Amino acid sequence: MIVADRKSLNEILDMVKSYSKILVVGCKGCVTVCNVGGLKEVQVLAASLKIGRKKDGQPIEVDEKILERQCDPEYVEQLKDIVDNYDAVISMACGVGPQFLSEAYPNQKFFPAVNTTFYGGAVSHGIWEERCAGCGTCIIHYFDGLCPIARCSKSLLNGPCGGSDKGKCEISKEVDCIWDKIVRKKIAQGRLADLLHITPAKDWRTARDGGPRKAKREELIQNG
Amino acid sequence: MSDSFEPQIIAFCCKYCAYAAADLAGSMRLSYPSNVKITQIPCTGRVDIVHLLRAFENGADGVYVAGCMEGDCHFVSGNLKARKRVEYVKKTLAELGIEPERVEMYNLSSAMGPRFAEIANEMTARIKKLGPSPLNTKKAA
Predict the structure, then answer these.
(1) Which of A64, A217, B34, B139 has the highest CB neighbour count under 10 A?
(2) Are residues A28 and A111 in the same domain?
(3) What local confidence, expressed as pLDDT, does residue B140 receive?
(4) Contacts by A131-139 with C-beta closer than 8 Å and gap 24+?
(5) Which of B99, B135, B137 has the highest number of chain A CBs within 10 A, making it the mutation to test binding with A?
(6) Does pLDDT of B141 surpass 50?
């Protein structure tokens, strides 16, 4: 899923400081699963904004709404009857949400309530870790399911480097050295010799280096 | 601070401990401030961040959650979850420039009637010292 973090209340309050009636829109997709922009978080943000503004003597009216997803036009369309009733709209979805909303309703002002951080999963309740960098050419099968692009600080294809120290990366004691894990897994599976193969330089054109990306499935595209 | 300030305090009390302790305090004829308005809940684990925030939004000067002693929750860990939510609300209040001491978590058992009254007194004294919630003192511009 896409993982995000909520912005600070002061940053969000600053975004909407000149408005007196706003809508907070959540998303039932990834941001619900990572507990950042689902129904509960929409309620908490709305209550916090109302408290902050009331305290400053400038009460604000905040309505709450949640969409199935903010990255599909058929769900974004569900705002059409209410979107103009507000001075501004705050989206609690990942960075895709406020952009889809802005494109669908060009006359309204949209603000992001979250910082979109990475593609990852919950390793335990309340803790998420990065697993994928969306590079466009998956190579994890060469590394026994461990991605050196997303999980090595230097995205090394032939590791580990000299910064690997007792299974941790030199950037932080909190960060595992994924190359340490790759080597240990190869040893455990009796396939260490795989690493004698030098992985050639990666073609990064499928990643962001090739510019904004687009996916097309001819069999799904409907005419008209 | 005016002596006439009578704070509105909301107490979310678990039915197995704090609420029963409040009953006991009553049976023991112990008096505690009428500022405290009790809301019975099945377990403090039911208390959500949004419940605490909405209490402040709707005019409470102080809010507290009273659950079972740690390790004694009927639902294993409801009171531990409640404590973390109270901590979250403390941070939220601080971020908004409101005293985080206005929200608190307490633990007690159903046999602790006097402690219930003591907590009610303690919280009322604390909020009286802090004064009215800033939400109640500011008039709309």
Answers:
(1) A64
(2) yes
(3) 46
(4) A133/A207, A134/A207, A135/A202, A135/A204, A135/A206, A135/A207, A136/A206, A136/A207, A136/A210, A136/A213, A137/A202, A137/A203, A137/A206, A137/A207, A139/A199, A139/A202
(5) B135
(6) no
Q: What is the structure's pLDDT at A33?
A: 96
Interface subset of B 66-125, CB within 8 angstroms of A: 92-93, 95-98
In tens, the pLDDT along A33-68 reads 999 999 999 999 999 999 999 999 999 999 999 999
- State the ipTM, two decimals: 0.92
Domain holding A185, by residue range, is 133-210
- Which residues from chain A sit within 8 angstroms of residue B98, using beta carbons? 51, 55
User: Of A44, A55, A58, which has the smallest distance from its Cβ to B96's Cβ?
Assistant: A55
Q: Residues A111, A140: one domain?
A: no
On whether both A102 and A141 belong to a single domain, the answer is no
Size of interface A-B (CB pairs under 8 A): 47
pLDDT in tens, B48-67: 999 999 999 999 999 999 99
CA distance B113 to chain A (A): 33
C-alpha span between A29 and A119 (Å, rounded): 13
Chain A residues whose CB is inside 8 A of the B56 CB are 51
Q: What is the DSSP letter of B68?
A: P
Q: Contact A51/B135, CB-based, under 8 Å?
A: yes
Looking at the fold, whether A107 and A43 belong to one and the same domain comes out as yes
Q: What does pTM read for this prediction?
A: 0.93
Q: B9-134 adopts what CATH topology?
A: Rossmann fold (3.40.50)
Identify which of B138, B46, B128, B129 has the alpha carbon closest to the alpha carbon of residue B96. B138
A32 lies in the same domain as A86? yes
Q: What is the mean pLDDT of each run of 10 residues along chain A (224 residues)?
A: 97 98 98 97 98 96 98 97 98 98 98 98 96 96 96 96 97 97 97 95 93 94 81
Contacts of A55 in chain B (CB under 8 A): 96-98, 134-135, 138
Q: Is A33 within a domain? A: yes
Q: What is the per-residue pLDDT for B138? A: 63
Out of A40, A51, A58, closest to residue B96 by CB:
A51
Measured CA to CA in angstroms, residue A170 lies from A118, A167, B61 at distances of 21, 10, 48
